[in-house]
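Structure ticket #2291
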Amino acid sequence: MTELLILSRSDLEKVLTMKEVIEAVETAFKGLALGEVVMPMPYIIDVPKHNGVWGVKSALINTQDVVGVKLSSGYFENPSKYNLPSITGVVVVADSKHGIPLAVMDASIITAYRTGAVAGVAARYLARKDSEKAAIFGAGVQGRTQLLALAEVLRLETVNVYDVVQASAEKFASEMSAKTGIEVRISKSVEEALRDVDVVSTATPSRTPYIRLEMLSKGVHITTVGSDHKGKQELENRIYDAAKVVVDKREVALEKDYLKPHHIYAELGEVVAGIKPGRTSSEEITIMDSSGLGIQDAAAGLAAYSLAKKKKIGTVVEFF
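Resolution: structure written out below.
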């Protein structure tokens, strides 16, 4: 009998930790730079009729004989209009040696954790080591995991949170202060949130840039995860002209209108693997412009599968 492990959202919440996902994602990016990972370009299906988008992302991790595929959606009016989550989907983890599916799991937690993990990996190599103050834009699920990841790799003392919905920012501040032990302050404007901060994470679906160059302090590091595909943009163009820009994959990043080849300093995997140095000056502005890759889903999915097997969590079904 071949078994298939089904992992629900609650199952994944029991097994995943940000520390383990950061380690898995960091290793995956290094493998991508060293040619140990095969990753097709992601496939995006826009659904303008319902203001939604579907994405298919996948990767083969040769060193571990694993294939990961994610089918996920982003419907950002769901929470306010229908009381449904904005991001849903599934991740499939399979054995690439024999072609056998191993697990099917909820994609929302995998996506949240692996997206947060990118901010953690990027901050480890691109932020100043003495960074203490952070700003988070977007008080949703992604904003929460951005903070969890930054807190894992930096010694943060204060965090400013900004969201266009005041109630969301208030809830974020209350919950994340309790969860992390870090003082989380609510900001009433973009400018206020950015004042004197060392690291920034943007996790909004904005299609209009709202952060301008003159708002930024010298030496700040920024991770953008909201600007994950064409049509979305959170930082104005001048910032990309002035900063050291790192992306997850050049071909994917260049599908965005605001990024040109001359903007891109390196891929994150090249920095992790030591092929190119990360931050080289305390005053340079660094950006991790993240699109989200299949290797992140495959790595986080494999970590979840391995942890769930060890802890005997999930539902096992007979596959064939």
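Closing remark: The chain has two domains: 3-110+295-318, 126-292.
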